[in-house]
Amino acid sequence: MGLKITLSLLLVLALGWAFVQHRARAQEAAAMQAHPPRGQIVAVDGHNIHAVIMGPKTGAAPDLVLIHGASGNFTDWTFRLGPELARNYRVIILDRPGLGHSDGQDGGTSVVRQAALLQGAAAQLGAEVPLVLGHSYGGAVALAWAINHPENISALVALSAASHTWNSGLSAYYRLLSHPVAGPVVIPLITAFVQESRVERAIAEVFQPDDVPTGYFEHFAADLTLRRKSLRANALQRANLLSEIRRMVPYYRDIAVPTEILHGTADTTVGVSIHSQPLARAIRNANLVLLPGTGHMPHHAEPEETIAAIHRAATRAGLRPAP
Question: Which residues contact 262 (CB under 8 A, 6 or more apart)?
């Protein structure tokens, strides 16, 4: 009798797990149908990197690479800012490895490796020495680009960038999803059953105290990030970030390109006193602009200030005439 009960329980678990995986695959298929690749796929060292290019032809305007943050993808930039910047720049929006439509296979976890892959993709697209902007986690990738590929960057814009070490531990969410055993069990459940209302609340929390722009929920492809491979890649990247930043900090003094730093004073995701203020002291040619009362998404809350920072960086690099 005991054996029969055990076998029955195992069968129920197997059927339940099969249903979870089936529903997860269905959710992922719907995400891909709703948000297909909008650009081209560039092969770099065995990785496929998704790139969306907006604006003038190669050589007709300065090249500007935009790098999204954690849990993000190309749609964060295509909402409003990318099209606006495309009036003055050849904008190259890159999905970081494991997110959006870029591969997340081996080597895509560290910010140094991501910077190498994105720099290689930009170079293949004709942007050998672009201006590079990174937001949040993407700011750490942009810093790694400036440190490790100084000959392949003309100027740097760090937007609410994670740049220095912090004392708080990794959240329970990221500990769980990055765990070698628990992660692969929990992640399919999230993909299969997460509610849209919960996703919208999470996005609103990132924007606080600023409002989410009208139409952003519908435009931003959160369901791409909720795919199993992207949840796992994002969690592993986030789990490794602190130790990687600790190794990068001593090299900030070597960054020689014009650097603009933009950060909201009300940012509770990446605190300005922990990150951008010491970063401005570490990079000798950095210009720091603080945005009073602005949260973690200044490229949406203060787009004019973000564009102004990019223009300043381009002018300082000799890519635009002085106003």
Answer: 157, 158, 159, 160, 276, 289, 291, 298, 305, 306, 309
